[in-house]
Amino acid sequence: MSAPELVRLTAWDNGPVRGALANLADVAGRLPRWRFRLETVGRQLESASSWSGPAAAEAAAAVIALATVTESVSRACLASLSSLDRLAVHAAAARELAEQALTLAAGADVELDGDGRLTLPVPSPARTMAADQAAPLLGRATAATRASALAVDALRRGSDAAAAAVAADDALHQVGVVDAWAPVSFADLAFRVGTGSAVRIAAAPAGRAPGAVAAWWTSLTAADERAAIAAEPRLLGGLDGVPAWARDRANRILLARALQDPGSPGYDVAVTVAGTLAGEAAAGRTAQLYEFAPRDGLVGVALGDLDTAAAVGVLVPGIRTTVTDDFGALLQDAEDVADAACSAAPGIAVATMAWLGYRTPQSLIRAASRHDARTGGRLLDGTLGGLTSARAATPVPAARTIVLAHSYGTLVVDEAAHRPGRLAADAVVLMGSPGMGRDGAAGLEAPEVYDAAGGDDPVARLEWFGEAPREPGYGAIQLPTDSETGHTEYYDRNHPTLAALGQVVAGSFRPG
Asked: Are 84 and 7 in contact (CB under 8 A)?
C-alpha cells in the first residue's frame, strides 16, 4: 500500500495545463502590439492633427484609457503565463517521479507514508548470511530507499506545482478574473485595474543604460507615461531609451517654460527652436524635439517619426555650428537627405535628425584637439543606443540607422565607436574628415562605412587627426563628389554627393 498523495500525482493530466499555456501565450503575444496601436491612435488624437475640440479630447482620453487597461491585462497575463509554465514543468516532473516511486515501492513490497517516508524499516542482511541470501535483502533495502527519495521529490514537486497554480490564479485576480469568471464590461475591468495609477518615475533605472530605460518605460501604462512626462519633463526629455514621441512632449514642455523668461540663459536658443518647429508645423511636416538643453546650446530635431521610420539618419555637424546661427541650415540639410532617400526608394518612411547634441569647437585652436569630440562621442553613443533600444522595446521592426558626420563631426563618430559596446548604427558616412583613427573603417564598428572627399576640400586632405578615410587603406567606400565640391557643399543639391547620401540612407547605394 502506498501514500494516496502519490497515487493522485500519477493521475495528474498535464494536457489541459499545456492547452491553457498555449491559449494564454497567444493572447499575451497579441496584447503588446494592440497596446502600441492604441497608444499611437491616442497620440494622434491628442495632437489634434485630424480632429480637435472637446469630443476629440474625450476620444483621446478613452483610447489612452483602453491602452492603459491593455497594458495592465498584458502584465497580468504574462505573470500568469510564467506561473503556468512553472506549473506545467513541476506537474510533469511530479507525475513521473511518483510513478517511479510507486513502481519501486511495489517491487520492494514496502509502504510509503504521506511524506514519502517508509512506514516500516526494511531489515538489513545479517552479517552471518551467505552472499546469495543477503543479496535479495540488500536489493530490497536499496529499492526501498530509492523509492522513498523519489516519493519525497515527487511530493515536493507537487507542492511547487500547487504554489505555481495559486500564483497563476493570483496574477489574473488583479484584472478581476475570479474562478475563471472575467469582468463583464470594460468599465468593470477599468475600475479593477485603474487608469490613473500613481506615477512611477522614481523607478527609472539609476544607471540609465538605454536598454534598461527602454524596458522600464514599456513597463509603464499609457496613463503612467503621460503622468511621468508631466512630472519630470527635464529627466525624460534627455533620457536615452525613452521613445522619441515622449521625449518630444517632454522637451516641448521645457521649451514652453524657457520661452516664458526672456532673461534666462538659452532664451535665444529657445526662440530659434520655437520658430523652427512652428515653420515645420506650418509646412505640414512631422517634427520631433528629441534633444533640448538651451542653456548648453544643445538641440536635436527630427523630421519624420523616429519611432516608426524604416530608415533613420542622424546628421552630426562640425566646428562653429550653433543653434542660433546654423540650425536652420542643418535642418534643411536633414530635409534634403530625407528627400534624396525617398527619391532613391519611393515609399520608404524616413526620419532624419539634425543633431547638435554636443558643444562644437568654436575656434580653430579648440578644434585642434579631440577634447570636444570625446564629450560628443559619449553623447552620440547614448543617442544612437537610445534610438535603437527604444525601438527594440516596441513591436515595430528595427530601423536602418545611418550616421552622417561632417568635418569635426567625423571625430565625434570615431570617439563614439570607441565607447564600450558596439556603435548602434548600420552605416556611417564621413564627409570632409580631417583624419580618423589608425584602426581604419573597421574601428567604427558599423557594417557599412562611406567617405566623401570633395575635390575642392582642403580639410579632407589634412590628416590632422590620423588617416584620411579617402585613402584606400582606410577601408571606406567612396561616395561620388566632383572637383568643385568644397568643404561645406556635400549636402548641396548641385553636387552628386547628396543623391548618393539618399541612396545610403535608403540602403540602395551601389559603388560605381
From this structure: no
